[in-house]
Fold:
Amino acid sequence: MTQNLAQAESTDILEPRSRRTHRFFKDLLRTQSAKLGAAICLVLVLMAVFAPLIAPYDPINMGAGQALTPPNLAHWFGTDELGRDLFSRIVYGSRLTLQVGAIAVGISMTAGVLIGLVAGYAGGWIEAILMRMVDVLFSFTETLIALAAVAVLGPSLTNAMIAVGISSIPFYARITYGAVLVEKNKEYFKAAQAVGARHQRLIFRHILPNILSPIIVVATLGVSIAVLSASALSFLGLGAQPPSPEWGATLAAGRDYFKRAPWITTFPGLAIAITVLGFNLLGDGLREALDPQQRR
Amino acid sequence: MTQYIFKRILGGLFTIWVTTVAVTLLIHLVPGDPVQIMFAQSQSTTPEQLEQIRQQLGLDRPIYEQYFLYMGRILQGDFGTTIRGNQPVLELLLVRLPNTLLLAASSLLVTMVVGVSAGFFAAYKRDTWIDTGLMTGAILGISIPSFWLGLMLMYVFSIRLGWLPVSGTDLKNLILPALTLGLANAAAVSRLTRSSMIDVFSQDFMRTARAKGLAETVVLSRHAFRNGMINVVNMLGLQFTYMMGGAIVVENVFAWNGIGRLAIQSIFQRDYPTIQGFILIFATVVVTVSILLDILYAWIDPRIKYS
Amino acid sequence: MALLTVRNLNTQFHTAAGSVSAVNGVSFQVDSGETVGIVGESGSGKSVTVLSLTQLLPNPPGEVSAGEAIFDQRDLLKLSDNEMRKIRGNRIAMIFQDPMTSLNPVLTIERQMTEALQLHLKMTAKEARDRAIDLLDRVGIPSAAQRIKNHPHQFSGGMRQRVMIAMGLACDPQLLIADEPTTALDVTIQAQIVELVKELRQKNNMAIIWITHDLSLLAGIADRILVMYAGQIVESAPLHPLYENPRHPYTLGLLQSLPRLDEARRTRLNPVKGLPPDLLNYPTGCPFAPRCPFVIEQCYEEDPPLESVGDGHQAACWVQPRGDEVLAEFRQAENSNR
Structure:
């Protein structure tokens, strides 16, 4: 038994952590697309952190220039209906986007992973009830869950983040649950169980570290989904409210001036698309680096 | 097979039952007084009127009693009335539901035609520039928000070129929304189709088919395509659900008069009876169509059909 | 009379790591009605050889780079796709290793059996169906008329391989290529399939190329055996000379590793030690030299040609050990060990 245990852990012992980390990043950045994804995410983070230094104008107060100016040298992305500099708004908007991604994914991942872990580990009626509920939620679609949550909480960006977070819980629960079932049948786990490890230790020391890879991949892709969903809610007027520089809300505000000033809708949409693309590419790269079997 | 269908229907009924419980609870989860929130936008309402509404909705009774009251009304086809205008909710929803179904179905058609052919072609031309190009397009497609894609299509085809109307309820108006929603989901389907077809192309039975001397077109259509489609058809139910979800957003971009547009309006107005009705109808439709598509799937895949 | 004459067949795989010669100057002949066994470890190029002949090798990465394969006065390797398709499944049929995956899971047996008949013999659906039922009957599928409507997953592994054989025989081929047809089956079923093919061979007077890694299997069916190693034929002989007096150390090793039926312990006593060469870094000299117990200096310098060592018996070895003596000694030692 203990020999099995040693064997299961031996792969970890063979290679020093630093080398493993190095190899992981090498694998991750092996493809051009993963590099592009990582670069996009990095630019986004830098933009959010240094927004005040990058943005040439105030994102919310008026008076940056004339209303509805097309893109030019002074206003790269033009100005909106109130004369605010669109580029500055988008730069500041990146902060909200990252916040949405972090909070929404944080909520759905924490709750989903917990449900999946408990259901998969406990088995029996706990598993039956939890996963049945997850199935039900899953068949409602994320959009419906998010809408119901906003209907309860009322429209605001914070509520939209929470709503989007809740809407993705079933997704994480399913991924985790599936991964737990796989781990539970492996030798190392049965060995640990046989030597009488406690539940807590079994769950957090044995299962969780082994299922982290798929969860990390899903979380990265989940940022994309969260950003898309939250911007959609804001676009519908159920998320960020004016004068917030949130991209979906900015885009929605530009709809009234669509004919005269298409840049107001074009640039925030482009910003969302590029951000989502970045996390998608990074997520695909992570999947390949962490799970070589899935390579195509 | 019958057992499988029976199980799916039972599961569907359970889902709908959970939905009824959820919508009853919905109103209670609202922070603060839901009745006051509902009428916050109209100043002229008196406390007596509020109390009357409260009674009407049964909010003054214990929650289990509310549930049975609500269920009793639902089963008689009474979904309540809108907060403003006192219109029957069910009628409002049912008038708009065909529009949403039409949009979702035509989008699904676009998704399948575009997604499957792109994925099939990419797999067949695997690791060529055609494959790379199509899959680059797919990852871009997955990343583009549907509402933005809709607005951009609208800008090009309606505003610039003037080929199609900006909004309305003719069939001509269906083209852009269906294209928007369809293309937005085609990207994911094309990725799925590609990986599924690549899998099939490497299977032994493909070699057997070629060893019989069959023409390549026959090998591809009869032997490869049907196998590759099993995975894709298996996802059809989920895809339809995505279409219904996506329709809520796209209807609002194009002012397409479906239940999604009504839902967003009622969330704005905090019109809870309508929101409840919408969730119930939406869930019922999604569950029913999913079951129908699953039966279709079982019919296509003989391994399920006979087990 | 020669049905198929293969001369100097060369097949390469172009991979990211470089080009690899999977088949390296293979020449052999199959007479009509004759059964030729090809034996070798996995990766020895035996499957690639027959896939090359029928143009079924996926290209890329595979490519036939030289050689000819004369079948009925025409070079198979130079046929257009269209001409090749008229021969495949019609005059040359193939059955493959894994009956579980070689049949299409979503089509009925009827569909999969009749399509070749309708294509090559221009039968109507009804005629094709009747013939298919007759064929299934002949390969021993009970109540074939009902079973023909079933899907592959409703058959057991052995039954599926019978279906594969029936499919292969559909158009009365002159040559049947069986690529490890029994490897995925258990021993009793293996024997049944071999018996079945023997029986059908007699009735149809068809030639067979039977590929396997199991030399003992060929004893009951092959007229002649080709031993392949690292993409080359290293020994070619009629059945009995090969078993009784092999002249290549690799064949000798294969024979010594066979489990003996007369022994109490049916264990593999003496598998050929070592691994076949990495085809990416093909060694100079004889490819078997690093594993060979008879190795001499010359083996590392020059690759031995396939030379005649007796009546219809060829071996590619500088040493050409007397296999009969080595085997006798080996068996004696084995017996005294007990």
Summary: The radius of gyration of chain B is 24 Å.
